[in-house]
Each structure stands twice: as C-alpha cells, then as structure tokens.
Amino acid sequence: MANKENLIPLNKRSKEAAKVIQTAGGKARGKQQQEAKTFREAALVMLKVPQDFKLPNGETLRATARDGVVLGMLQAAQRGNPKAAKWLADILGESSININLTTDEDNRPEINIE
C-alpha cells in the first residue's frame, strides 16, 4: 500500500525505473485523450440529429438537438433563470455583461441585462 514512507520520487529512482513509470503514464494519458475525443465526436454527431421541439405557443419546431439546447436555455432564461441567461450571454460573446434577476409588478421573474 502506498504511503509517504514507501513512495519514491522519480528523481530518486534509477533512470530505467523512471522511464518505465513515465512510459506507462504517457500511454494511459494517450488512452484517456482518445476516449475523450471519441466522446466529443459522438456528442457532436448526436447534436446534429433533427428532433421535434414543442414551442410555448403549442407549435412544433423541427430542428437539430443543438438548436434544441439553445431553445431550452432561451426558454429557461425567459422564465427567469439567471444561469441560463449567463450561458446565453457567454455563447453570444457578451460574457462581460451584468445580469440581474428581479420581479415585475405581477411578481413574475424579470431579467435585466446591462
């Protein structure tokens, strides 16, 4: 079992032992990066799949899943979700803006963007 007494830093090991450990670490990192790339590629493919989305007025919109994500975040922001509003601002390149959540006279959420 590893603990402070039996952990040996690489600079205190022989060059051969350090090389074996570093090679194993490099291979593990390469495998991890390949898995992350595969996951990203699968997500990008799935975001291009057309889907039907219900709009607040009851109509159905045929769009990609990526468009659906943006639509969902827009609807959440319109309902008063400040994190959704911030996400939209970041996507639009306006991340330096201030977002304030207040309520109007009917106690409905209102987002003020400055």
Question: Can you offer a commentary on this structure?
Answer:
A two-stranded antiparallel ribbon has the order 1-2. Strands 3-4 form a two-stranded antiparallel sheet. It has 2 domains: 13-46; 49-113, no CATH class. The longest helix has 33 residues, at 15-47. It is of the alpha+beta class and 114 residues long. The chain is elongated. Helix 2 (65-78) packs across helix 3 (82-91). It has helices at 15-47, 65-78, 82-91; strands at residues 50-54, 60-64, 99-103, 109-113. The mean pLDDT is 85.
Name the features:
114 residues, alpha+beta, two-stranded antiparallel sheet
In a few lines, what is going on in this structure?
The protein is α+β, with helices and mostly antiparallel strands.
Pick out the low-confidence regions.
Answer: none
Shape verdict: elongated
Biggest beta sheet summary? 2 strands, antiparallel
Q: What series of H and E elements makes up the topology? A: HEEHHEE
Overall tally of domains = 2
Give the CA-CA distance, first to last residue: 56 Å
Helical content band: 40-55%
Mean pLDDT equals: 85
* Proportion of beta-strand residues: 15-25%
Order of strands across the widest beta sheet? 1-2
How many helices in DSSP terms?
3
- Rounded to the nearest angstrom, the radius of gyration is 25 Å
What structural class is derived from the secondary structure elements?
alpha+beta
What is the total tally of β strands?
4
